[in-house]
Amino acid sequence: MKPAPFDYHAPETLDEAVGLLARLEHEGRDAKIIAGGQSLMPMLAMRIARPEVLVDLRRLRTLDYIREDGTHVAIGAMTSKQAAADSALVRARQPLFHAATELVGHIQIRNRGSVGGSFANADPASEYPAIALVLDIELVAQGPGGRRRIAAKDFFLSLMTTSLGPSDILTEVRLPAHPGARRWGIQEFARRRGDLALAGVALTYDLDGSRCRNARIAAFGAEPTPVRLGAAEKVLEGKPAQAATFEEAGRAAAAALEDPMSDIHASAAQRRDLVRTLTTRALADAAARAH
Ligand SMILES: Cc1cc2nc3c(=O)[nH]c(=O)nc-3n(C[C@H](O)[C@H](O)[C@H](O)COP(=O)(O)OP(=O)(O)OC[C@H]3O[C@@H](n4cnc5c(N)ncnc54)[C@H](O)[C@@H]3O)c2cc1C
Description:
The chain has helices at residues 14-26, 40-45, 81-86, 88-93, 95-102, 107-112, 115-121, 127-135, 152-155, 230-236, 243-256, 268-288; strands at residues 7-9, 31-34, 53-56, 66-69, 72-76, 138-143, 146-151, 156-158, 161-162, 169-176, 183-189, 199-208, 211-220, 227-228. By secondary structure, it is an alpha+beta fold. It is globular and about 60 Å long. The structure holds flavin-adenine dinucleotide.
């Protein structure tokens, strides 16, 4: 199928883009931002999305950067995911985000798809939203009211819905630098390499001697939004980093899911079971990785 007709604008500056979106909102026109088009184009082609106007961010080169910013790594929203995967700075300063990036789709998708697009799209099966919860990533948005920072826990509201308003542009993603000794892991299950995951788990924890501390665990692909698995985090606190603990935490993670999704790809029970196995594996993988 072909997309329904739409008007098209490609503003040259961020201010121009924000002004244009605000004007279109004021006129009551249904406008949609397009970045890399890797999620939006299929939705347009299938006419699941039928915006009257597309506002293309591709000329906003000022949103294409990766830089160190004090205790954070700042990534411009229009930076391609492959640029993040290729970045020595991202790999060194935030290895969990780097590993998650390498799991996104194929190189063609990562070349075209923007970092910001994956956060704004808020697909429940996407790796980044879960990573955002684990790492306390900050999102920076620019809208008619100015610039604001949004904590990850306040950003993902429901299925493919964020706290961005219709005239807001996500401009930057801010990753806290990874403390060197912190353990991290990410595991997912997809039917084919590069597919969106049926379920996945990302986590970090510290080792105090041989005991686990400060675990942060989030699941993706399991519920309509990424979810922190607090019950599994509690199980780990103060326990020895060993197989029996990781299995207990896996069971707690599965039980912590409130309402797993069920669709043609996997049942709720399969997703719950995947979260159990993937949590156990990610914990063990994190413990085994050399530091
Ligand atoms: C075959 C295939 C496999 C894939 N596998 C994965 C995978 O494993 N993991 C994964 O996470 N993703 C996967 N994707 C999705 C891909 O990562 C997309 O690149 C990403 O979801 C959206 O980024 P984009 O730049 O293409 O955004 P677009 O498709 O252009 O936009 C997506 C949505 O975000 C909004 N948006 C985009 N940028 C901004 C912004 N700066 N401010 C405000 N709103 C914005 C748009 O309005 C739209 O609603 C896959 C896609 C395909 C086609």
